[in-house]
Amino acid sequence: MARSKTSKKWMEEHVNDPYVQKAKADGYRSRASYKLIEINEKDKLIRSGDTVMDLGSAPGGWSQIVARIVGERGRVIASDILHMDSIVGVTFIQGDFTSDEVYEQLLQSLDSQQVDTVISDMAPNLSGVNTTDQYASIHLVELALDMARNVLKPGGNFCAKVFQGVGYEEYVKDMRSSFAKVLVRKPAASRPRSREVYVVGKGFKG
Predict the structure, then answer these.
(1) 79, 112, 149, 202 - which has most CB atoms within 10 Å?
(2) Where is the active site (predicted)?
(3) How far apart are CA 108 and CA 120, in angstroms?
(4) Counts of helices then strands in the chain (DSSP H, E)
């Protein structure tokens, strides 16, 4: 079946994307790695020895970065509905974290330990209907925030991908109730026309 003009244009853009090429050269699984690298350089969310939860982790671009930063003394608990090839130092739980079963698995894997940072690069399967997709996106990041509130230690950090649109302002306001500082980042590796931004919460109030 012939590709649509839109998908053909996307494929050309993807192949020629300097961050895609850089990710291949640097051995990263996704161009998204550079988004987290830039955010962490600015906001110091993750440090050596930390325990980090990575939601929506496949194909593993963020987990790769986190595992290197936290080192052998740290822990990375990752989860995605899709399969993710193993990464040294990362415990991966496959399944839908919005289900009770996977949620419990994530909590059990922590073994009553609190988390220093929760990160989420999750996005819903897009339907192409902007309003529907926006609601689905906001619902996911609300669940990620709920998880962060349940597992973060006081003073912990949170970073989530959010799409600007309906519900975005309310979401940022909700985050401010739980964190001492809330920042919005648009990393250089995020495509300029994309509505995605990364909302960073620092200093969880517990």
Answers:
(1) 79
(2) 161 (proton acceptor)
(3) 19
(4) 7, 7
Do the annotations mark residue 146 as ligand-binding? no
How many domains are contained in the chain? Answer: 1
Question: CA end-to-end span of the chain, whole Å?
Answer: 53
Query: If the chain, 206 residues long, is cut into consecutive pieces of 10 residues, what is the mean pLDDT of each piece?
Result: 56 61 68 92 98 97 97 97 96 94 95 96 82 90 96 98 95 98 94 90 96
pTM of the model: 0.88
- Nearest in space to 139 (alpha carbons), one of 109, 116, 106, 162: 162
**Phi, psi of 72, rounded to the nearest 5 degrees:** -65, -30
Rounded to whole angstroms, how far apart are CA atoms 83 and 121? 15
Q: Which domain holds residue 29?
A: 5-204
Ligand-binding site membership of 96 (annotated): yes
Is 100 marked as binding a ligand? no
CATH code for position 177 = 3.40.50.150
Q: Can 161 be counted among the known catalytic residues? A: yes
Number of Cβ within a 10 Å radius of residue 148: 26
Q: What is the pLDDT of residue 205?
A: 97
